[in-house]
Design a protein that fits this description.
Blueprint (H helix, E strand, L loop, with lengths): L4 E7 L6 H12 L5 E7 L5 H7 L3 E4 L7 H13 L4 E5 L1 H14 L3 E5 L9 H15 L4 E4 L2 H10 L7 E3 L6 H7 L3 H7 L7 E6 L8 H9 L4 E6 L5 H10 L6 E5 L13 E4 L8 H8 L4 E4 L2 H7 L6 E2 L3 H12 L2 H18 L2 H16 L2
Parallel strand pairs: 1-2, 1-4, 2-3, 4-5, 5-6, 6-7, 8-9, 8-11, 9-10, 11-12, 12-13
């Protein structure tokens, strides 16, 4: 049996979130296909130790801070581990990792987990886009996690059509199902035992997620409790908003949960109000577990839920309140939408397809 081929997975964070969780899934799933992943990134969250606990070699690298030392650190890791291929995830990881790969003389591929540039001031935005275009010329393959993202990236000139591969994020349905905690236990863990109907969301507390929209919507539907799993810079503002609307008792801030997917049974409805996404892993996980989803009508959510899905609504508090209120009043409808979501997630977003496609890309780049 041939030795596993070592590849360096470079991440920008190991905090609880879709990107690091995706890399963990990839590293574990590709073992059986002959790849040995070494993960490099900052030890800034619980996923750093989870990588190690899973038997994945994990190295510290400050990819969350721009600087030449990080590039040199990654070059040393490439040489020390005999790395054949560098796979980067996220902006900081993509910058440092691709430069390091070029210096070390190994090929690089990059996954774009969303293209977020609109909030930058015009001069910064221009520099960022120019840098991404230059970095793409150092990249053998650019992986897009959704077709909508690929269209946007091509329009912005961030990569060529020949470089791009669309590989949809996938989830391990069997693991999700086996690890899901019973409804009562999940509610107890989140402090929701007394709540009759719960709308839940799992997200980084960032402005692009528009979680304030969900707080406003809940204020309009007295029958519902909102549970927000996550943390981030928007947390103080969201808490203050809940207090100002008089709904603090009905908004549960559950904090970061590295195994958030095991607690999804606590929710009656999953809600996501993002302004923009790559391909939202938490939404796919909720669907795979049979939850009805109410989502802002953006390209990524249309791709996940399907064009024309009844779960897609305009990104306004009024539209979300109407959709959530209607589901609160109709248990049969919740069950039907949940079953439709489960079928779609398990047929379109199973991790086996994702891993097979990634394996193909790795082999294509290395010619093995």
């Amino acid at each position: 049996m041939s030795e596993p081929i070592p590849i360096l997975q470079v991440v920008v964070s190991t905090k609880a979130g879709g990107g690091p969780q995706h890399v963990l899934t990839v590293a574990l799933g590709l073992r059986a296909r002959g790849w040995r992943s070494i993960v490099a990134g900052p030890a800034d969250g619980p996923l750093f130790e989870r990588f190690r606990a899973a038997g994945i070699t994990t190295e510290r690298a400050r990819t969350d801070r721009l600087g030449p030392r990080t590039v040199l650190r990654l070059v040393r890791l490439i040489r020390a581990h005999g790395i054949r291929l560098v796979h980067t995830h996220g902006k900081g990881a993509g910058f440092h990792g691709r430069l390091a790969a070029r210096l070390a003389g190994v090929p690089a591929i990059h996954t774009l987990h969303g293209i977020h540039h609109e909030r930058y001031r015009a001069p910064v935005r221009a520099v960022y886009l120019a840098l991404e275009r230059w970095l793409s010329r150092q990249t053998r393959v650019v992986i897009n996690v959704s077709r909508a993202q690929e269209r946007e990236g091509l329009a912005l000139g961030l990569f060529s059509a020949g470089q791009s591969r669309v590989i949809l994020n996938g989830v391990d349905v069997a693991r999700l199902t086996a690890s899901a905690r019973p409804r009562g236990e999940a509610r107890e863990a989140l402090g929701l035992a007394a709540a009759p109907l719960v709308v839940g969301s799992v997200a980084r507390f960032d402005e692009v997620k528009q979680l304030d929209l969900l707080v406003h919507a809940i204020a309009k539907v007295p029958a519902l409790t909102l549970a927000l799993i996550g943390d981030g810079p928007e947390a103080p503002r969201l808490r203050a908003l809940a207090a100002s609307l008089g709904v603090s008792a009905r908004v549960r801030f559950a904090g970061e949960r590295p195994e958030a997917s095991t607690l999804l049974a606590a929710f009656d409805v999953f809600a996501t109000s993002s302004r923009k996404e790559g391909l939202p892993l938490a939404v796919v996980e909720a669907m795979a577990l049979g939850l009805p989803v109410v989502a802002s009508d953006i390209a990524a959510h249309r791709e996940v839920l399907g064009e024309g899905s009844m779960g897609l609504v305009p990104a306004t508090p009024e539209a979300f309140a109407a959709a959530l209120g209607a589901l609160a009043d109709d248990a049969e409808r919740r069950t039907r939408l949940g079953a439709e979501n489960r079928t779609r997630a398990r047929s379109e977003f199973d991790q086996r397809s994702m891993l097979q496609a990634l394996d193909g890309v790795y082999r294509e780049v290395l010619g093995v």
